[in-house]
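Sample 1 of the test manifest.
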Amino acid sequence: MNRLLSSEFVYNYRRNIPAVLGSVLVLVFAFLAIIGPFLVWQDPYDVSQLELMDSFKPPVWLEGGDPRYLLGTDGQGRDVLASIIYGARISAFIGLAAMICSCVIGTTLGLMSGYYGGTLDAVIMRIADIQLSFPSMLIALFLMSAFGNGIGMILIALTAVGWVVYARTVRGSTLGEIQKEYIQAARVAGLSDAQIIRRHVLPNVLTPLIVVSTIQVGSFILIEASLSFLGVGVPITEPSLGLLVKEGFDVLFSGIWWTSAFPGLFIMFLVFGINLFGDFLRDELNPRLR
Amino acid sequence: MTQPVLEVRNLVKAFSIGGGFFDRLQIGGGKLIAPEKVLNAVNGVSLSIAPGEVLALVGESGCGKSTVAKTVARIHAPTSGEIHIDGTEVSSLDQKELRPFRRKLQMIFQDPYASLNPRQRIKDIVIEPMRAQSDRKMSGRELDAEAIKLLGRVGLNAEQANRYPHQFSGGQRQRIGIARALSVRPKVIIADEPVSALDVSIQAQILNLMMDLRDEFGLSYLFVSHDLSVVHHIADRIAVMYLGFMVETASRDQLFANPRHPYTQALLSAAPSVDKSLRKPEVEIAGEVPSALNLPSGCCFRTRCPLAFSRCAVERPALRPQPGGGSVACHLHDPAPEAFTS
């Protein structure tokens, strides 16, 4: 532990204000998402706890605000803060789960592509090229509208969009690693291709994946929010942050801005924090920039 | 005569370069063609190593000596030719079928910084061949004990077994590489320029270690090097390569005392020597090594050979045994056929 604290990594981290800011933001949001439901008094999706009389209360610091509802309420009398905390859990879950799915699939394809080369490589990389020539939003939108919505479907759509980044990153690092003599040494040692990939190539291509994964979580949360805003994302029973913005947007022009603005701000700071930390990791872990 | 532990016959390795089918596609003679570009790295090399013998393979950079080493170790698949390890032909076996033979033939690599996986502890590096090749499942403790024993033999201590490669110097890393090669008790070790990346002061230590291990474990070495002083120190027999061809083989003393191929003569005279009595008369060669993409006709060395004559451009000289031992691939050392005697 002491060695970790005195390491160069920690030293650089402490001196990098955006990185500290970013990770603090991420930690606060993670904290809220995990234990937040115990902090707020209302479960916004338990109808018995809702008071229709309390609908469209403004935030507490405005005239007519109610101290029970810090950030105001929506049309059903739901506390906006409570909705955000519940929504953040769903958004964060989707972002992380989609990252893990696309990481596993993309890394596997990238390893095979880089290690075996040849036709397999050509096929995988041409599919990736075709995929990259469309905006990822468009592909996700198409898949969601064609095959219906739901959290499972969102994960499939985000994975279909996100594997390419992993496959390309891993393929690039793999091509560099397999030139090195320790791979040849493993071959002489009698290891099979699968063993060489698992024990030698994979551990040495992981570092860039940490960076990619951080950035990907942020972008998945954004894509999911956009899909939900457009009405093809999560169902109304499992509202994510994007859906909250959409719900609030309907009443935005009647002067009730808080129901959409606060979830929107929350998404912004969450993704901002993730990206700040991701940038720091990229600078720190990418040996080419040193 | 005892059976050679390693015998290679007419080994050929050609690399296809120029990329995939679409990269090579071009229009030639009004038609779409995709010409194959081939780099002839090794063109019919034969060698054999007796038990306990050290055969050095020398030649300048790019002459294919490392390719020979890596093809014999089956890192590359040979294009044609035979590789016999302890009497068994292995050139067409796949990785799984090769495993029992890998136990007899191991390799030490050139670059001690690239030949160890940076994410593995050195004890895991050392036991990897053992773990991959042993018939029975060995327990973790057994493997650890073996690793520490091997590391101890090459001059590293037990506390260092849990460290990672970056915590070691180049010489120490090469010792780790040697321990790895030794772990399955091979009969032959292929050493691909094992000391060329090390400081001169460390080179001697590593070479002496290798010679001690040869006596202790009854090893044979195929020792690839471009450094003639290193070769003089370690080799029993020397094979000289030029542009993928073997041009001369001889015992060490014979080769240094009396080089017969013009290329060997040039190579030896180019090597700097402090001792004036050892200096050879200058044989200078001009020009560049021809491209392995486009080999010259006849003798591969004729484009730079000061003694080349008409036959050299027509006929490729074969490696022929010479009176007094060794063999040479040169028309000067061959009773010429009728057509060229006049």
